[in-house]
Write the structure tokens for this entry.
Amino acid sequence: MKPISFKRHRFPAGVIRHAVWLYFRFSLSFRDVEELLAQRGIDVSYETIRCWTIKFGPLIARRLKRRRPVPSPRWHLDEVVCNIGGRRMFLWRAVDDEGEVLDVLVQRRRDTEAALKLLRRLLHNQPVEPQTITTDGLASYGAALDQLGLRHLHRPGRLRENNRIETSHLPIRRRERQQQRFKSQASAQRFLTTHAAIYNTFNTQRHLISRPTLRRFRADAASAWATAVA
């Protein structure tokens, strides 16, 4: 991959990388990141940090995504209501059965057309064909899968069958509260897409693995990050 250029920035590349990592990795505001950097003797405003996340966040996310292994072919789809810029919108998400975030899409509607748009993005962007597609009881999923000729893969279920994606909404809800709700559809889409790639890299599900395995996973995640931001 071509190295990321940090030219014409007053602060060293290491400071910019660390600020972007802190913001997307943890539930922190821009002011929180400013305070953490100030504790280390780095005087930078939260507005500068915001500009860094907008400029470098999506670029790093794309590089991380290219390095990810092939996800599971068992997909889980769901949608939640979000209040964005004073308007009621819907956050459509897809994860695999291991919790890997496959795609995130902010839309104004909750109908067949919206479900079809998410499914087409998944089929176009994912490197693996689905074996099963588990959703909640929303009829729009079935109608969209009918149009795509994939109804035989559909597994409509309730909370227990789709619990994998129901619980995966929690990190997004935490960030939504931290940011006092998203301000616009475009900024929400940009943040959530970037957050998903970084979340996938560092999400280790530590309660399911031993301590030596956790250390190895953390080292792999750190290595992937170092390569992506180089």
